[in-house]
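step: validate -> pass
step: tokenize input -> pass
step: predict -> running
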Amino acid sequence: MPRGTKIVATLGPASTDPAVLEQLIKAGVNTVRLNFSHGTAQDHTDRANTVRAIADKLGVPVAVLADLQGPKIRIGKFEKNKIELKKGTTFILDAACELGNAERVGLDYKELPNDVEPGAILLLGDGELQLEVLEVRGTEVYTTVLFGGVLSNNKGINRKGGGLTAPALTAKDMEDIKTAAALQADYIAVSFPKSAADMYMARTLLRAAGGHGSLIAKIERTEAVANLDEILDASDGIMVARGDLAVEVGDASVPALQKMMIKRARAKRKLTITATQMMESMISSPVPTRAEVSDCANAVLDGTDAVMLSAESAAGKYPVEAVEALARTCIEAERSGECRVDSEVRGGAVQFDRVDQTVAMAALYASRHLPLKAIVALTHSGTSALWLSRYNSNVPIYACTLELATYRKLALFRHVQPMLIPAEVGQDREAQLSHAQLALLKADLIAPRDRVALTFGSQRGGINGADSLRIIEISGK
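step: predict -> pass
step: emit ->
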């Protein structure tokens, strides 16, 4: 079985060189993340073009994920770049301050005085420093330091338990959506959404800009957890963004939330990416810690579609080694994990809403009761492959498509191995199925006398998507 869990790698100074990008893709990267918090529109476009050129040369699909910055909920800058806060002292967050000192600092997020009240707990710098609000006077938020330490320029601010009113989409994000559409990003990640409305707005803006990418909601606010179901319904997938989420809800709450979110997303047939500090120590070390390996393996066993590297691949000393470590961790976790079969596949009393879902479940059921070598899904949009990928299968799933955009998008689906059918094969279903079989034979992925399940659309009866299942025995090359 090929590796089922996919790897997302963030691009940055450590991974911009084409030679390094090629090594990353060879090591197992399936999707690259363009972090719109840094760089220009041209930087992102150039990186996307370089990645696609390398992927085409290597003959593998690589998706492009454009990650929007979201609201900058941060403090301003200091006269001397940083100060030290001591426990029990008073410190002022002042929206009118231009340059901070030991007594106060300015705010990039000017609405903070309107969002807090006495007793509110503010967490700065990923929660390393904690302040309790004493009172609000106009533009000034007076606080007492609960946990001190060094506070430097532009550190992020979170409110414990959530409640900051910053909108998910800023003016910068709206411009960046246009850039993402222009470079034909396969996925767009929306930072800090609080409700389905944020995702609907992002989709409207993306479609208006001519973009056709899928939307990933980054779950990093307390409000997003409370509104998870509606956000899932409005999105194509979620990112379990454990950094900011841990600051708001508390680090001890994150593991259970991760499992719950992945389970809910899979139940709703949505994609999941698990992110933040997956291999954090490999920013400076050539090997991961045992705790990091266990963390990544648990995400795989939870059923995540993909695990993501951030600074490890963007700015670390060992970007290729980090991908290699993540790939072997995924493989071992998949090999050792018990293959659980969902009730639909077992034949439970579950009603299906769609024909393509029914066909996918029939193929999976067959794979559990026949010695099938593979499931081959002929797909236009990728929907039938998505249905197949939501359940644990004991055979590889090969998704074959004529559509280049679908081919790239499929790179993020767990258990799915995308295959691009050349345009010259044409629209005839039998010709496409024959091409897929011959390609798999040529690559030694199947052999003569192997049994294979084929799912495809017959284009009859007014049904869109896969409506047919055929089980065949491969005759030969």
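step: describe -> The domain at 6-70+168-334 is CATH 3.20.20.60 (TIM Barrel).
step: cleanup -> pass
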